[in-house]
């Protein structure tokens, strides 16, 4: 989601993001009763980085390495014909697999719910988890599908004119969440 960089303002900074991920990790351990069968799957691009960070925090809490992977949803999206072609990302499922395990999908921003619907479809083609939960850094509302996150770093109510952009050091050189205003579509010539 692009923001007009001159209008975008930071609403979360690196310390906020780190604190939220620590809280989410503790919530996962509490709800999963120790996180023995948890597998984290990040949705590319930034969801993968967040999943890796969560895995590190979960390992610090539990003392055990946490299986982490990525789940490409490109071919499961319902907007393929509406947008330009995009490169496929990589799906990596940890060696333990997902069958009978608690899979926590990790993404940066929850908006309409369509990305998560696509992730659920992709997951169904890979295996049969015991349960699926969702962890997001930012929930901005405006759901179009009946999907909600189990773990939320920050609920950030927005208008449809606003955009939310997560920047992470691994991809963008810094950790921040920016709130901006969508630029109006150019008027078509008559």
Automatic annotation (TrEMBL):
Keywords: Glycosyltransferase, Transcription, Transcription regulation, Transferase. It comes from the Bacteria. Pfam families: Pribosyltran. The keyword Transcription applies. Its EC number is 2.4.2.9. InterPro entries: PRTase-like (IPR029057), PRTase_dom (IPR000836), PyrR (IPR023050), PyrR_bifunctional (IPR050137). A motif (PRPP-binding) lies at residues 103-115. Belongs to the purine/pyrimidine phosphoribosyltransferase family. PyrR subfamily. Regulates the transcription of the pyrimidine nucleotide (pyr) operon in response to exogenous pyrimidines. Also displays a weak uracil phosphoribosyltransferase activity which is not physiologically significant. This is Bifunctional protein PyrR. It comes from Streptomyces jumonjinensis. The gene is pyrR.
């Amino acid at each position: 989601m692009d923001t007009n960089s001159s209008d975008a303002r930071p609403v979360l900074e690196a310390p906020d993001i780190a604190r939220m991920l620590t809280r989410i990790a503790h919530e996962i351990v509490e709800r999963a009763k120790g996180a023995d069968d948890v597998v984290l799957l990040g949705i590319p691009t930034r969801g993968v980085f967040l999943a890796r960070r969560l895995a590190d925090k979960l390992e610090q809490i539990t003392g055990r390495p946490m299986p982490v992977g990525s789940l490409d949803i490109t071919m499961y999206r319902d907007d393929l014909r509406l947008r330009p072609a995009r490169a496929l990302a990589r799906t990596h499922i940890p060696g333990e697999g997902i069958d009978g395990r608690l899979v926590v999908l990790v993404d940066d921003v929850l908006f309409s719910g369509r990305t998560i619907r696509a992730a659920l479809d992709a997951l169904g083609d890979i295996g049969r988890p015991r349960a699926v939960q969702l962890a997001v850094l930012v929930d901005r509302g405006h759901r179009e599908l009946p999907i909600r996150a189990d773990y939320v770093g920050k609920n950030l109510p927005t208008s449809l004119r606003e955009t939310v952009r997560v920047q992470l050091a691994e991809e963008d050189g810094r950790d921040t969440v920016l709130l901006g205003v969508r630029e109006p579509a150019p008027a078509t010539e008559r």
